[in-house]
Amino acid sequence: MEILNIKKINKDLVVLVIGKVLQVIISLLAIRLLTTYLMPEELGNYYLLLTLLTFLNFTLLSPVSQYYGRHVILWKSSGNLSSATAVLFCCIVFGGVLTMLISNVLYHLFDYSTYYSVSTFSLFVFISFLAGSVKVLLDSNNILGYRIYFVKYTLYILILGLLSSVFFIKLFSATGIAWLYGVAFSQILFFLPVCKKNFAEDKVNYYKLKEKINYTELRKVIVYIFPLTIALLLQWGQNSSYRIIVETKYTVDALAYIAVGLAIASSIFYAIEGIITPYFMPDYLKRIITVSKLERAEEWNRLANSVLPIYLFLVFYVVFSSPFLLKILVSDKYSDVYIYVAIGALIEFFRVTSNVINLVSLSELKTKSTILPYFIGVFSLVVALYFSDVGDSLWIIPLYLAFSYLLITITLFINMKKLLAIKLPIIGWVKASFLSLPFICFLAFDSEKNIILSCLLVFLFGLYFIFISYLVFFKNKVLKV
Fold this sequence. Notes:
Blueprint: H1 2-37, H2 40-60, H3 62-78, H4 81-109, H5 118-132, H6 134-143, H7 147-171, H8 176-189, H9 191-199, H10 206-212, H11 215-249, H12 252-288, H13 293-329, H14 338-363, H15 371-386, H16 396-419, H17 426-435, H18 451-475
C-alpha cells in the first residue's frame, strides 16, 4: 500500500514539475515579448491595467473563490458540488455587473481619458473580470485531485493566451490593453471545458439549493468573506498600489522599469510556489478538516519546515543570478534593472512566507486576524512613498516594499501564533543560508560577455537549486528540523 502511495506521489510530482517548468518558460517568454513589443510608456500602462484588474478581483472575486476552495472537498463528499458551483457562477455574474459601475468611477478618479475612452475601458474591465474566473475553477480542479487535468488546461490557457496577445498586438496596436485582451480571449475559450469537471460530480439540486439560501447560511458566508475581503484589499494595496503612486509622482516610464524587475522576481517565485502549493495544499486541507487544534498546528509546522527553507534558497539564487537573468529574459533597453530583481527577491520571500503563515487563518476560519498585519504594511508603504522623494534613486521604492512586507510577516506571525502553536523553521533557514553559499560564484563572471554564458550559468546553478530543494522538500535529508 505504501509503495502505491509513493508511486502516486511521484506521478503527481512529475506532472506538476513538468507542467510548472513549461508554465515558467511561457511566463518568462511573455516578459521577453512584452519588453520587446511594448515601449516603456505602454508597458507602464500594462502594469497599471493589471493593478486595476487585481483590485476588482480581490474585491469581488477572490473572497468568494477562497470560500469556495476552502469547502470544495466537503461539498464533493456530500454531493453538493454542482449546486455550490451554480451559486458561484451567480456571484461571478453579479460581480461582473458591479465591475462595470466601479470601472466608471476608477476611470474618472485616475483620469484615464488620455489613454482610453470610458466605454473601451469599462468593456475591457468587464470581459477581463469574467475571463479571470476560470482560474477559480482550475484551482478547485486541483484541490479535488485532478492534477493532470489542472496542469493540462493551465498550459492550454497560457499558450493560447501568449499567442493571442501577440496576434492582437500585431492586428490592432502594440498596447497593454491589446495584450491583456489576448489573455482574456484564451481564458474565455476554455471556460466551458474547465467548468464541466465541477458539474460532473453530481447534479444541481434546485430544491436543496433554495433551502440553503437563507439568512443563516448567508450570514455564515458573509462573516467569513467580509474580513477576508478587507484583508485582500490590503494585500492589493501592498502588492500593487505602489504602481499608481509611482506613475503619479514620477513617470509611467519609471514605473515600467521598476515593474519589469519586480515581475521577473515574482515570476520565478510564483513558479516555485506553483509547484509547492498545488502539491501540498490538497493534502493539507484534507488533513486539517476533522483533526484537533494541536494536530492542525503540527500539520502547519510540518508544511513550514518543508517549504520555507526552499524559498530562502530561491532568494540567494535570484539575487546573485539577476544580471544574468536579465541578459536572457528582457530586451536590452531594460538590461540595467537587476537591482530591482534582487530587491524583488526579498519582497517575494516575505510575500510567500506571509502566505504560508496566512494558512492558519484559513484553517481556523478566523480571517479577521489578518487585517491588522496587512493594514500596518500598507500604511507604512503608502506613507513612505507619499512623504518621500527618492529622486533618481528609484531602487529605494522596492526597498520600501520589502520593509513593509517584513512588517506584515512579523505581525501576521504574531497574530497566527495566538490561534495555533506554530513555529518558524529558524534552524532550517540558517542551514539553507549555508547551503546557498555556492551561488556567490556568480560574482566571478561577467554578465555582459554573452548570452550563452548567462544561459549556462543560470542553468547549472538552477540544477544545484533543484537538487538541494529536492533533498529538502521530498527526501528531508538536508534540513531535517
